[in-house]
Amino acid sequence: MNAVIAGISYRALLGRRRIWLLVLLPVVLIGLAVLVRMISGGSERIAVDFMQKFALGTILPLLGLIAGTGVIAPEIDDGTIVHLLSKPISRPVVAQTKFLVASSVLALFAAVPTLVAAYLLVGFESGIAYGFAVGALAGGLAYAALFMLLGVLTRHAVTVGIAYALIWEGVVGNFVPGARRYSIQQWAQTVADQVSSSSFLSSDLTIGFAATALLLITAGAVLWAGQRLRTFSLTGDE
Amino acid sequence: MSEPTGVIHDIGYRHYDGVRLGRRHATVALAVHSLRGIFGLGRTIRAKIIPFLIVGVMMLPAVVSIAVMALLRQKVMAYTSYGSIMQAVLAVFLAAQSPYIVAPDLRFRVLPLYLSRPVTLWDYVGAKLAAMITAMFLLLAVPLTVLYIGELVVDLPDPVKTGNYLAAMAGAAVSALLLSCIGVAIASFTPRRGLGVASVIAFYLLTSAVSTLVSATMESVNNYTASGWALMINPFFLVDAAVHVGLFGADASSPVVYPSGGGAVALQLLLVVVLIALSVIALVTRYRKAAAR
């Protein structure tokens, strides 16, 4: 953890135009939760469905993508990462710091609004709100780590990231049940299911598998990103 | 008297006195260059991977359908539902490639250089839009045409659905126009490619998720009119309702019934036109500002 790097990353993430997208998504989430509440009147089934499809299925991957790639990809794009890497700071520490920044931003812009949205839908009934907030936090950490790693690995990190989130988790996951085992979204849902006691929320995976997978992906991605930064070579823009 | 110290050498500089091809030629050249760039032609091999992968995925249902038609002798899907089924892939292509055609020029502030030539601001914006529209149209029209040729060759017992194919091609043109204008307009607001990709995909994911969600919620309280209109938030279903169903009378490709009737179709078409106009206005306003810096 390095305070200066954290400060720079926060400024890159929260300054300028990126912040608008980071604010817009939770606002839409909470606004829609209010709308759904007004129309459906606090039905638990609809609330769970809304949280699964919209909060965990749409908003969380998007925020993860923006925060995860946002902490490192612009610096690589600009070439300013060279100044950072030429300082006597361990590269794994750079990666870990940037991961912590992305996760704290996701906790604030993804997990907290998820809690608020679920509370607006059903209150604290059968632990749905806590469940989804914890699920969003766990999923957010994994997304942050994975997308940060992508940012280090490729110039097209955002495109590869949306292809994973949209096509693999969305389309393939809907048609091929086996693909669901390897999806952060499903792992986050499993965590939410574990915390909540609602009968409308069910998951195909066991909590042991999901928690291990989340932990492995998060830790593995951060470590790999650190290792990758050690042998980083800055290639020109095509 | 001393020798001259500074000498201007005659290095044989010559004026260009050939034909000046002019503004239109420059605009066409810019459009063609942008179109080639969208598919990664004339760029590095790494820039070709993503567009050609997406083209491959778009061709997949057409190839599978032809195989099924040839082996099992039955139709798999209507032409008009091709775009709606593959909407996620089309959206990924739009998001991945529309920032490419606008972001670098904004980021390196080369707009004044373009505008110091006969090309005007409208020419520049028009060329960029034309390139993206053509790319999006090709992405959907080529698989449709391959599928149509396949149906002609396989020669099924029931008649060839030429009307449905033409409706799908018209829909492909309108959706390419609508999506490209919106996509390029959103992408032009940031000089960063990554953020541009994220913004465009956020637009698609939000509209599609919100429309499905609101539509399902309205349906659950038996408000079917509102449910149909909520689906119109998704641009793919808007074009499907306005062009395929409204103008050509094809079957809807969504599970929810669209708002129908002359008034509703007129309103949907108006919505398409207004969205395109707003995007173009936003784009030109953005470029006025960028050109002034």
Whole-number mean pLDDT of chain A: 87
N-to-C span of chain B: 50 Å
The value of Rg of chain B in angstroms is 24 Å
Helicity of chain A, as a percent range: over 70%
How much strand of chain B? under 5%
> What is the N-to-C order of secondary-structure elements of chain A (H for helix, E for strand)?
HHHHHHHHHH
Largest sheet of chain A: none
State the total count of DSSP E strands of chain B: 0
Number of strands of chain A: 0
Protein name (chain B): ABC-2 type transport system permease protein
Keywords (chain B): Membrane, Transmembrane, Transmembrane helix
Organism (chain B): Streptosporangium saharense
GO cellular component, one term (chain A): plasma membrane
Secondary structure blueprint with pairings:
The complex is a heterodimer of chains A (238) and B (293).
Chain A (H helix, E strand, L loop, with lengths): L2 H12 L3 H23 L3 H27 L2 H6 L2 H5 L5 H32 L5 H26 L3 H19 L8 H12 L11 H24 L8
Chain B lengths: L21 H17 L6 H28 L9 H4 L1 H21 L3 H5 L5 H34 L7 H26 L5 H28 L3 H8 L3 H13 L14 H31 L1
Helix pairs in contact in B: 1-6, 2-4, 2-6, 4-6, 4-7, 4-8, 6-7, 7-8, 7-10, 7-11, 8-9, 10-11
